[in-house]
Amino acid sequence: MTDLVSKSGALEVDIGGHPVRIGAIAKGSGMIHPNMATMLGVLTCDAAVTPEVWTGIVKRGSTNSFNQSYDRNGSDGYLFRESTAAASQITVDGDTSTNDCVIGMASGASGAPLISDPSSAEAQQLEAAVTALLQGMAKSIAWDGEGATCLIECEVIGAKSDAAANQ
Questions:
Q1: Is it the case that residue 34 has pLDDT exceeding 50?
Q2: Catalytic residue positions?
């Protein structure tokens, strides 16, 4: 195991007048590159959300934290956001792996109303919280990278697309 410290985080947001809790843990600090590698993330949430909406939230949250953001429609029909301000990627040593995964589970135990419309204010609020938490996990993994002595964040301004910013 190459992790030196545990990586976990939690948020509580008010959605529809009900507190909704989101938690995450992650491991893997070696061979991290823009398409995830040798890492595992687990995301839990007690919001009531349809599987279709939840899947989109987790995919976009992962894309905008661990991976590059692409201007394309996913197989689920959702547009991955094309915004260099919101896109993130992590890299430690330039390697990638097929052994990476982010698992998202939503229990519905919060008592908040069901979120079934991905464009609703509640879905957008949940997605913002999930993305923020996953971005924190991504930074924690990079910070704990194999042999890392510092974390450097670069902001690209004025690029026409995320693909151009990543070059």
A1: yes
A2: 38
